[in-house]
């Protein structure tokens, strides 16, 4: 009974209205195949809506991807992870490009610490303008910087006494300051902590007698 009632209207449709329905159906079908029919606007709307949704989604995805740049960091031991540029200088004893970038022109009061282990290396009062293109200091925080003969046989390499990270070279006898010493340090080997800001804790390598060289560690690593 109910089905009869439901079917009745279609059954009672005139052949003309059925033909119109068929035409509309055909139009929609052909429009979806790219037909430039009169109902182009309707078909384009239905075609664009899902596509624009997808685009919005992919745009959102690409935006969120670009927010997080992929930076591979080198992690050696317990120390701060290093970017490839930092690792090239600090671990492979490379030299950064000279210039007025980085910490070369920094004059603010504060402390220069090791980028790798946070050990305080230089005070701002040790810094002077040498115009050599790298940050220059004529003194260091006591015990913070170790000196080694450079592989080139001429210069003296300076490294962080705590983590052995490469800092640069030290030169004497240039008469640039009364102390007559120039620590020529790569900006990338350091981090500047402005005065008043808390210094991060120094990261100390746990003692490993088997792995390390037989360097005597008579000083207390906990002491600064
Ligand atoms: Zn260090």
TrEMBL record:
Indicate yes or no for the key word Metal-binding: yes
Q: Which residues does UniProt assign to the signal peptide?
A: 1-37
MsrB domain segment(s): 75-195
> For this protein, what is the EC number?
1.8.4.12
Q: What superkingdom does the record give? A: Bacteria
Catalytic activity annotated for this protein? L-methionyl-[protein] + [thioredoxin]-disulfide + H2O = L-methionyl-(R)-S-oxide-[protein] + [thioredoxin]-dithiol
Gene Ontology biological process terms in this record: protein repair; response to oxidative stress
Q: Where is this region: Disordered?
A: 197-224
Q: Which UniProt keywords apply?
A: Metal-binding, Oxidoreductase, Signal, Zinc
One Pfam assignment: SelR
Cofactors needed by this protein, per the record, are:
Zn(2+)
Q: Which GO terms describe its molecular function?
A: metal ion binding; peptide-methionine (R)-S-oxide reductase activity
Q: What is this protein called?
A: peptide-methionine (R)-S-oxide reductase
Q: Does the keyword Oxidoreductase apply?
A: yes
Question: InterPro entries from the entry?
Answer: Met_Sox_Rdtase_MsrB, Met_Sox_Rdtase_MsrB_dom, Mss4-like_sf
Q: List the lineage, top down.
A: Bacteria, Pseudomonadati, Planctomycetota, Planctomycetia, Pirellulales
**Basic and acidic residues: compositionally biased ranges:** 208-224
Q: Which gene encodes it?
A: msrB_2
What SUPFAM superfamilies does this protein map onto? Mss4-like
Q: Which organism is it from?
A: Rubripirellula amarantea
């Amino acid at each position: 009974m109910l089905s009869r009632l439901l079917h009745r209207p279609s059954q009672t449709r005139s052949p003309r209205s059925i033909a119109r329905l068929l035409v509309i159906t055909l139009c929609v079908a052909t429009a979806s195949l790219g037909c430039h029919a009169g109902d182009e606007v309707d078909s384009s709307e239905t075609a664009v809506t899902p596509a624009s949704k997808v685009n919005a989604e992919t745009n959102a995805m690409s935006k969120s991807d670009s927010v997080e740049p992929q930076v591979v960091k080198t992690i050696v031991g317990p120390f701060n992870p290093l970017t490839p540029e930092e690792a090239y200088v600090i671990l492979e004893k490379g030299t950064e490009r000279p210039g007025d970038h980085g910490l070369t022109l920094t004059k603010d009061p504060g402390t220069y610490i090791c980028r790798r282990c946070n050990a305080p290396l230089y005070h701002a009062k040790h810094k002077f303008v040498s115009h050599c293109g790298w940050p220059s200091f004529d003194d260091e925080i006591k015990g913070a910087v170790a000196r080694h003969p450079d592989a080139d046989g001429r210069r003296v390499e300076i490294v962080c006494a705590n983590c052995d990270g490469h800092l640069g070279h030290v030169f004497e006898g240039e008469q640039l300051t009364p102390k007559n010493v120039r620590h020529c340090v790569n900006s990338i080997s350091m981090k500047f902590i402005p005065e008043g800001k808390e210094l991060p804790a120094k990261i100390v390598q746990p003692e490993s007698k088997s792995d390390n060289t037989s360097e005597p560690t008579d000083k207390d690593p906990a002491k600064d």
